[in-house]
Amino acid sequence: MKNFLLICIVCVTFNFQAQIHNQSWQDIIHNKEVFWFASVEAKQIAENVLLYQREIGGWPKNVQMHKPLSKEKKEVLIALKPQGKGATTDNGATIQEMLFLSKMYHQIPDERYKNSFFKALDYLLEAQYDNGGWPQYYPLRKGYYTHITYNDDSMINILNLLKEIKNNTDYYSIKPTKLQLEKINIAYNKGIHCILKTQYKQNGELTAWCAQHNKNTLEPAKARAYELPSLSGSESANIVLFLMSIKNPSKEIITAVNAAVSWFQSTKINNLREDRIYSKAGKLIEKKMIPDVNAQPIWARFMDLKDNTPFFCDRDGIKKYSITEIGAERRNGYAWYVNHPRKVLETYTDWKLKHSVNKNVKPVNEYKIVVAKDGTGDYKTIQEAINNTKSFPYERVTIFIKNGIYKEKVKVHEWNSNLSIIGESKENTVITYDDYFNKIGLGRNSTFYTYTLLIEANNVILKNLTIENSSGEVGQAVALSVFSDEVAVINCKLLGNQDTLYASGKGKQYYKDCYIEGTTDFIFGSATAFFENCQIHSKKDSYITAASTPKDSLFGYVFKECKLTATKNISKVYLGRPWRIYAKTVFINCDLGKHILPIGWDNWKKPEAEKTTFYTEYNNKGEGFRPEKRVDWSYQLSKRESKKYTLKNILGKYKKTSKKEWYENL
User: Fold this and answer.
1) 560 has which bridge partners?
2) Coiled-coil ranges per the record (predicted)?
């Protein structure tokens, strides 16, 4: 039996080695099927990866980590761990090991994989220079290794990793801590800033990048003897592709891309191809450049900083202007011509269309308009789309907003009636701004100017949106202001603190399946508003509503089938107080959390309001429903009285007919 087990172990080991023997480490990371990362082979390789990682967090380069390790080799690696020696991001090192561990963790949630990934992430963040660049090695090694290194895409690989993590794309299964995410965002932005600062100006015009730049002066720098300061046709291409991948690029990024593309177009080499001659054993023995009118464009690896002339170097570091002038060892052992910029030129046209603003272009369908921050819609901003819609249209105009964070102050003017603004998803279509009372500074009425989204038009529908005032706890700061009639807000999140929702005017408004949060008076105003199946969330011990219902209005704020919740440790919340003395607020069939005070209502130091307000409830439930403890000037409806609080009776126009109401078309 023992011999049988021994044979099995030998067979498994042999099969494991046979399966991966002819594969490279990069192939294993990038080309293995997802399920393979749960295999015995993968777990054995993962042990090697953990062993190779230095205590500082990085890995050495050019290591075939899937190769079996002897006991002696393992002891050497254990001894090297605390030294940090060889830790680098060159040739894909560290980045590729992080990807491997991420794929392992997705299949096998071993905490060691996650901890190793985090250690590597901290290593990358620590290695970054204050100017945003990264060296080739960290801890720093003397010589050219301290330069900001674009060579072999070292820095771009780091930035692409940070971009995937910060954008939460699920490319990496291991998610950062909140503190790490904050650091990632800072590092990512600093890295982009470094790229923009190092783009080389030739005779005052932006061009491309060198493979490495001095960490202090940011000027192009020398690496090995045959890698002189120059403009790179290789590394520059992937820098530009990275910049083009950024959503919502700044003007500076757009300028950098346009300039680099112009440079690629001016430096491309036509009618020339590279032929390679191999020995019978498959070894490269000669490269020859052959004239060919049908050849695809190529670019030189190195171009002169003054005039873009291609040049070549041997190990003596002397510039030559023909590849035939350097020895066979360097001529055949180095990539002197590249085709990477082709991909830039292939994708540039579409990219430029997305990021060029032509305000004279009209949507294909003026009644179905698309807004997308990445330029794939009719407009890039919501306000631009609204400003270009028909005034007082006979048919409903729908503006569909693709997912994204739209930081803009949006106004739907009175003439933009019959309008639907529909988000792609409530969670990911965010309209946000950060105005507040003191920031506006227009006197005692400044609150009314603080809105993120203002609705002045009738017959407007808002759906699947997050509308946020992001200013924080700084006083009055409105997220959504609605002044008009027949406005519906469906499946939306209204986020803010004090004065989140200003539901005002003399019109009728319908809020359904919404989440509304705030601190003080976060639902306030004079409208007749029906809230159905909404979550009303208090973030502070304070007041939910502050109605200013006109004296002649039959209804004010009506909450039906709503759930009142609160942040932890909040325990003293009033249902409302009267902003004006005829305030009307009703809660029917609602679930009131224990944060609601037993007395329920406050008179806002207006004793006269106790005689004029209409604060009432019916059939509520939850720990916060204490009708016997309510202030004696509030009211509990009878079953008969509650029957008039129907959607049709409150919001309808055709109460005595069967004609379809405005809210029935939502």
Assistant:
1) 532, 588
2) none
Q: What is the pLDDT, as a whole number, of residue 5? A: 41
**Contact 53/116 with Cβ under 8 angstroms?**
yes
pLDDT of 22: 55
3-class SS string, 322-334 = CHHHCCHHHHHCC
Please give the positions annotated as active site: 521
Average pLDDT over residues 465-469: 98
84 burial level (CB within 10 Å; 0-12, 13-18, 19+) = middle
d(CA 649, CA 663): 12
Q: Which residues contact 478 (CB under 8 A, 6 or more apart)?
A: 447, 448, 450, 451, 452, 469, 496, 499, 500, 501, 502
At 262, which helix (H) or strand (E)?
Answer: helix 251-267
Q: Report the distance separating Cα 386 and Cα 366, nearest Å.
A: 11
- Give 589-609 as a DSSP string: S-EE-TTB-TT-B--TT-TTH
Residue 646 is encoded by which pair of tokens? Answer: 């129907």
pLDDT of residue 364: 74
Domains identified in the chain and CATH numbers: 16-197 (1.50.10.20), 199-356 (1.50.10.20), 363-665 (2.160.20.10)
Q: What is the pLDDT of residues 544-562, one digit of tens each?
A: 999 999 999 999 999 999 9
What is the distance between the alpha carbons of residues 292 and 290, in angstroms, rounded to a whole number? 6
- Asked whether the beta carbons of 336 and 300 are under 8 A apart, the reply is yes
Dist. CA 583–CA 174, nearest whole Å? 52
Report the alpha-carbon distance of residue 536 to residue 587 in Å, rounded: 12
Measured distance CA(536)–CA(544) in Å, rounded: 8
Q: What is the DSSP string of 96-109?
A: HHHHHHHHHHHHS-
CB contact at 8 A, 313 and 228: yes
The single-letter DSSP state of residue 151 is G
Residue (of 3, 108, 89) closest to 45 by Cα position: 108
Residue 482: both structure tokens together: 């609605």
